[in-house]
Amino acid sequence: MKTTFFSIAILLGFLTNLHAQDIYLPVSSKSEAAKADYFNALQAAENANIPAFFDGMKAAVKTDPNFFMAYVNLAFAETAFGQYEKAAAYIKPALAINPAGFNENEKIHRKALQAWENDPKADPAKYMEALTVAYPNTPEAYDLAARSAKWLSNDTKSSVKHTLRLLELRPGFGGGYNTLGYNYMALQEMDKAKAAFEKYIALAPKEANAYDSMADYYMTTKEYVKAVEYFDKAVAMGMGSAMERADQARAAMKGNVAVVDGLYQAFVKGDVPAVLAVMDANIVWNEAENFPYADRNPYIGPEAVLNGVFARIGAEWEYFNLTDIQLHDMSGNMVLATLRYKGKHKTTGKVIDSQTAHLWTLRDGKIVAFQQFTDTKQAAGAVK
Fold this sequence. Notes:
Elements lengths: L2 H9 L8 H4 L8 H15 L3 H14 L4 H13 L3 H13 L7 H15 L6 H10 L4 H13 L4 H14 L4 H13 L3 H14 L4 H13 L3 H13 L5 H28 L2 H6 L1 E8 L12 E2 L1 H15 E14 L3 E12 L5 E13 L2 E9 L1 H8 L1
Parallel strand pairs: 1-6
Antiparallel strand pairs: 1-2, 3-4, 4-5, 5-6
Helix pairs in contact: 1-5, 3-4, 4-5, 5-6, 5-7, 6-7, 7-8, 8-9, 9-10, 10-11, 11-12, 11-13, 12-13, 13-14, 14-15
């Protein structure tokens, strides 16, 4: 999901399916109704339902005005949004609560709130680290430390460390793999990121956020067809916020097709400079094996393609036309073109009419790779 929206959801420590005392840090509220609202709010945030998170936390402090950890969560969320004035509105009543009966978790968080009261942008890292020392076997301590390290301290490597410990304690917690996936993306360890998001989906197949996060991965790798697939899945499961991102992915797909379409139009017009202009400086171009111009594969760079392929075609063929071109969006930021070659060789006078496919790979609006597939026997016969 989007970074801003996601940063709130992942900051709060969302663990389910075990008894609260096994996974959550302790709270001192005596109101069972308030605690029910509190834990429901955490679970709503786990599923990226941020409005329900805020509603639940506000309900908890309404039922129990001295529910310290509910104020803490509201303050943390607003701070992650950069809404420091709103955070201050929760910090003030939290610090007004008598700390005499506080447990160690609440004492540590109180110090964090005091730091924020003095400086809204204070780094809470040392307080989150203190939680892991005070509660070495409580998953939420590592969850909070990991998320805080990532989104408030900008320390991705520490976030990975804490998340891995969290998953040792709670290997079935999908949200932990979600955090891990975004961390690995930030570190450019894309294979690990993909594996983490796949694990998240396997553990939480009914959660729209799992598919939304996987879609974010595919947007990052510019695999727009896959991104659309997963964003649409999230939308179908009720995550309306994924719809805008799905539209962005579709627009990117159309952009790739437009680039390739423009290349073919330029080729038909004989505008070779325009064809070369959409190629990356390090394009890797491969003719089909046994095609007459496969002898210099791979061609690296536009000049090599110009001199090794286009110039030779122009010199050796009376005409060489591309017809019946159809473009198809593919995964992996690729475009597949199906077409026909129709040409007449100057020396032999023989003609070809061959079924052909071109696979184009793009990055940032430039073509970085090309692979030709065609009837090489027909071409070879024409040049002999």
